[in-house]
Amino acid sequence: MKIPISLTVNGDKYDVMVSPLSKLVDVLRDDLLITGPKKGCAEGECGACTVIMDGKPVSSCLVLAPQADGKEITTIEGLEREDGTLDPIQEEFMNSAAIQCGYCSPGMMIMSKALLMVNPHPTEEEVRDALSGNLCRCTGYQQIVDAVMAAAEKERGGE
Asked: 88-155 has which CATH code?
């Protein structure tokens, strides 16, 4: 049995039929073909599937699709600006060599964006704390922290 849900993803509204037990990550990837959120642990432990839902970061592998009905979702694909330029988070991840294999990058960038939305002046410790639920096996994290700090400064206008 499938049920209808409506959700807005990266500014676009979608009406989709889902199983009541479908996970949001599966609907995004399989039904909507939005592949930025990655399927990692499927237990909310790795952060690869992180999206912003109604302004807050969530592990989309833990959200049942019906719980996303009526919600606004932002994925890595939605960070690009209307004029086609990259968000400062995306730019600084590239500039700081914070992307290695890329598997964790969408979740890391989304979590970073969520942090900067509520705390535009984070300390390095606050960045590390915010990203503590996102696992990376390649970078050693310092480049990621550097990228977030540089993006925060860029978004503030280089204060």
From this structure: 1.10.150.120
